[in-house]
Amino acid sequence: MLNRDWQNFLIMFPLLADHQLTTGLELDEFLSSLQLRGMSTEGIDMVDQYIRSCWDKGVEVVLDPNLEGAFGTYDPNSNVLTLGEKALDCNVELIETLEHEFVHVLQDQMAGINNADMETLGLPTTEYGEIAVETSYSHHTEEVQELEVEAFSAEELISNPEVTAFDLIG
After folding, report:
1. Domain range spanning residue 150?
2. What φ, ψ does residue 63 adopt, rounded to 5°?
3. Residue 169 covered by a domain
4. Residue 160's pLDDT band (boundaries 50, 70, 90)?
5. Those residues with Cβ within 8 angstroms of residue 161's Cβ, 6 or more apart along the chain or in another chain
6. Are 59 and 80 in contact (CB under 8 A)?
């Protein structure tokens, strides 16, 4: 059962599972729906830039309210970034998820975007990133853990305008 915020979002931007954003018009409609639910201009610009940058790299962006177990994913085999309900349901989480998954896109690009390989970018890591990986990724290989530490750290290091906007309201 979808929560009320998600139902309202779907009224503003109806989508089905695995809805791929493919055109500027679809992106504009998506961004308008985010504006209607209160996302700041800075946040909308950030979402727009992340999605267009994915497209520029040949990466598909998919909105999937049925994605389970994650806010978002990036698959380097198919070059698909997917945003799930947990991310789409909250302006703050949407931007943090895009920050995180876009780091994976860049890691893939570093290793050659048209293969399944990924390499760290050499970004600074944070205690938050290390704890997040220790908590949720300890059963993965060391390579996956390094990639995730970098992506989680980026979430903390990149300014999220929605956190500031939320703090002003709350």
Report:
1. 4-163
2. -100, 120
3. no
4. confident
5. 40, 42, 43, 46, 95
6. yes
Q: What single-letter amino acid sits at 82?
A: T
With tokens 């970098």, the residue in question is 150
The model's pTM is 0.87
Q: Residue 37 pLDDT > 70, yes or no?
A: yes
Per the domain annotation, does 73 fall within a domain? Answer: yes
- How many distinct structural domains can be found in the chain? 1
Decide if 168 is inside a domain. no
d(CA 28, CA 14): 13
User: Locate tokens 């790299």: which residue?
Assistant: 57
Which of 73, 21, 69, 66 lies closest to 48 in space, CA to CA? 21
- What pLDDT was estimated at residue 4? 60
Cβ atoms < 10 Å from Cβ of 159:
10
What confidence tens digit (pLDDT) does each residue in 115-147 have? 999 999 999 999 999 999 999 999 999 999 999
Tell me if 170 is assigned to some domain: no
Q: Residue-wise over 113-125: b if at least 16 C-beta within 10 A, else e?
A: beeeebbbeebeb
**Cα 103 to chain center, whole Å?**
9
CA distance 133 to 126: 11
